[in-house]
Amino acid sequence: VGVGIPGAESRTSGLIKNANSTCLIGMPLLSDLQALLQREVRLANDANCFALSEAADGAGAGMQTVFGVILGTGVGGGIVVDGKVLTGANAIAGEWGHNPMPGEHHADTCYCGRKGCVELYLSGPGLAADHRRETGQDLPAVEISNRATAGDPGCEATLHRYEARLARALAQVINILDPEAIVLGGGLSNMERLYENVPRLWGEQVFSDQVSTRLLKHRHGDSSGVRGAAWLWP
What we know:
Elements: E1 2-5, E2 8-9, E3 16-17, H1 29-37, E4 42-45, H2 46-57, E5 65-71, E6 75-81, E7 84-85, H3 119-122, H4 124-135, H5 141-149, H6 153-177, E8 181-185, H7 194-202, E9 214-217, H8 224-231
Parallel strand pairs: 1-4, 5-8, 8-9
Antiparallel strand pairs: 2-3, 5-6, 6-7
């Protein structure tokens, strides 16, 4: 059995940490599942599972280094190199969502206890909160996107801010990891405009004369997370 979860298993305690489904934090999920199912279980961060699925036979198939991004109720990331998930010494490789958003100075506090996290700006709730701050309208992310498409100037301005922030945040990833592809997943990844507008913006922040990294939409949609959990077993 392979299982994708929000968060990660601590290398020191074996308990779950960093989960935005906070009820999981501090729980022995892996040992509990193995005891209940009476078989071996492999557990991985859901963004890592997404990245593995898309690198194995999805949008990033055949590429050496793939950075998978989840833009949904939270913001996660996973790194796959030569077909293998990079977990890291602290089991946090790819967790760009809890770096500070470059160029922003709001003092909002994330569920993780840190201030100004990328997740506060680039998640679905973060997009809705930014729109509410700027316009006073309380709209979900999908409605903001739909209204922008229909010509609403306030919603269009919100998406411009979102794209600029996404470009700055991903430029930092490119400067460190230099992946061949960044594959987007999660509900916000279905905004087709991102794939043209964000690469046009991120060049200003990338330390290179040109940017060959491709920004790609997921191939397997909402199935990629569970497919990646299956891919934990070769």
